[in-house]
Design brief:
Elements: H1 2-12, E1 20-24, H2 29-45, E2 48-55, H3 61-77, E3 81-85, H4 88-95, H5 99-114, E4 119-121, H6 126-139, H7 143-147, E5 152-153, E6 156-157, H8 165-174, H9 191-206, H10 210-239, E7 240-241, E8 244-246, H11 247-251, H12 255-267, H13 275-287, E9 291-293, E10 298-303, E11 306-311, E12 321-323, E13 327-331, E14 335-343, H14 344-351, H15 356-359, E15 361-363, E16 372-374, E17 381-382, E18 391-392, H16 393-400, H17 404-407, E19 412-415, E20 418-422, E21 426-427, E22 439-447, E23 460-461
Parallel strand pairs: 1-2, 1-4, 2-3, 4-6
Antiparallel strand pairs: 3-23, 5-6, 7-8, 8-11, 9-10, 10-11, 12-16, 13-14, 14-22, 15-22, 16-19, 17-18, 19-20, 20-21
Amino acid sequence: MRDKVLRLIQKEGLFPQKSRVVAAFSGGADSSALLHLLWSMREELGISLSACHVNHLLRGAESFRDEEFCRNFCRELEIPLAVYRADVAAAARESGESVELAARRMRGGFLEREAAGGFAATAHTLDDRVETALINLSRGTGLKGLCSIPLRRGVFVRPLLECTREETEEYCRAHKIAYVTDSSNLSRNYTRNRIRLDVVPVLREQSPGFLRCAARTFENLSQDEEYLESRADDALKELSRGEGLDCRGLAGLHPAVSFRVLRRFLGRAGLPYDEQKISLLLQFSGKGQGALQLTERFKASVRGGALVLEQVFPPLKEGFCLPVREGEYTVPGCFRLRLLKMDYEEFEKTVNNDRNLLKNAVDYDKIMGTLLLRQKRPGDVFHPAGRGVGKSLKKLFQESGLPPTLRERVPVLSDDKGIVWVGGFGCDERVLPGRGCRRVLAAEISLLYHKNAEKTGEGERI
C-alpha cells in the first residue's frame, strides 16, 4: 500500500518539494493510515507535516475520547496537531442543513484555514468514492457527479483514493497502528451509512471485483469530464462579450458544453445554479430574448444579443438631492461618493498614478453657484468631455445599456448652469480641466451592494 500511495503522489505531483501538508485526522483507520504513511514519507517527499482534528461534539464522551486519542497519536510521532471543537448540531439547525452537510462544511473550513499556503490531505478511499457516486446517482446527477470525489480540488488532495478501506485496515494491522471506531458509522440514520452497509455489499456479492471495476469506470469518466471541461473553458473565452456571453454562439454549442459554459458563467459571479435554471437560460438565449430571476439580488437577461447578469435593486423609497462640497457622502443602497479638492499641480501628479481621476475631475473654479448631488431629471442634457455633442441622460443611459433599475441610482453633480459630472460617464465639457485651471474637484465613487456570504461555521481552536 505504501508503494501504491507513493507512486500516486509522485505521478500526479500532489506535493511539490517543501510543501506544507495538513492531514485531516479523525482517529479512524483511514485517517490513521494516511497520517502514518505521510509521516513515514515526509523526508522522501520533502514535506513538512501537521494534522488537524475536528471534534464535532456529536457523540458525547466518545467525541472527547477520539480527540484525546488523536492528541496522543500525534504526540508519540511528534506531529504538530491543531484541534477544533465545533457545535455541528447547532450549526445544522441554524443553517437548515443536515448534520452530515454541516459537519463537512465546517470541517472543510477548518482544514482550509490550517492549510493556508499549503495542502490539506484527506483520507478518502476508493470505498468513499464509490459510496459518493451511488449517493449522487440516487439523487440524480451528471458526469461530474458520477466521477465522484476528485483526486484534488483546490487545496484538498486525496492520496488514498486508489486504496480500499480493507487495505487501510490491513496497513494499520501490519504496522501495529491503533485507531478508534466511530459508533455513528453503524447507524442507518445517515445516507452514506445505508449505502455502505446495505447497498455496496449486494453489489460486491454480485461482482466480487466491483471496487476495481468501479475504479476503472471512474478513470474513464474522469477523462471524458476533463475533455468536456477543457472544451467549456475554450468556449467561455470565445463567447465572452464584455461581461456577457454571445447568445447565438451559445445556442450553437453541444448541450454538454453549453451546460458547462453557463455553470462557469454563473459560478464566477458567485451565483447558485441548477439544471432547471441553466435549461431556462439556454432556452431564452436561443430565442434572443427573455430574463430569469436567479436570486433576490441578481437576474440574467438578454441585451444586445448577449446574455448578461444584472444586479436587481428594489425601487428607491426616496430620491436624493443635497448640496455638497469637498467631503464624503453616502446614499444608502446606492453609492458612496468622495469629493476631493486639490491644486492643479497636485492633480497632475496624482493622475499619473490613477488615470481614472482624469475623467472624474472638474475645474473647480468653473462651478457656478450651488453644487448639488442628485438623481437624473427629465430634460437633463450632458455634454461628455471630448465628444463635442450634447445628449439627454435618458438617451445616454439607453445607449450604454444601463439597466433601468440602476438609472435612478446614477449620481449626478450639477450647478446653477447644468450638469457638471455623471457617475460612470465623467465630467461635462463645460467644466473640463484645461489651460489656466488652478483647482480641481475629483470624484471617487463606489457602489454599495452586498452578496450573501457563504457560511463557513464557527468553532473553537483548542
